[in-house]
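Hi there,

I know you've been waiting on this one. I reran it after we fixed the sequence typo, so this is the corrected version. Both the input and the resulting structure follow.
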Amino acid sequence: MTEDSTGKSPSILEQLEVTSPSQQADSAQGEALSEAQRQAVAEAEAQVKSLPTLLQGDLDPEHLQALLTDYSNYAQISEVLVKTGALDRAQAERPTLEQAVELLVAGRAFAIQVRYQHDGQWWCDVISKRSGGARLVRMAFEPDPGSAKPGPQPAPQ
């Protein structure tokens, strides 16, 4: 690692150069891209830019309870899913939010997913058990207009 003008070695983050997929494709082996290849790269970049932002945080038991209260008071819940193991699919039966949380707290569920609407925006929360509380991962989404149920749809099998 080289030192900068202050005599300090720059961190790895300062050494990284961020490039877009089109810049990477342009520099790949010095080859020129066809128009079709450039279009494919542009479409891939547009899809990446359109991915929703994930929000996450750890919740202690009091904040988990506050979240459940907020769901009850401020959200229109459309679906609750329970996942019983890291490699298991969500269960076919659809419990209430209270039942799903009981399974999670008791250690009989790996995670629960709550799909809901709040102030006109659809959200998908995944709550997984952690020692001393829970982990929350939240994502905003647009419902699939062709689906009877709002939310990210499972991949076809």
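Quick highlight: Confidence is low (pLDDT under 50) at residues 9-21, 152-157.

Best,
R. S.
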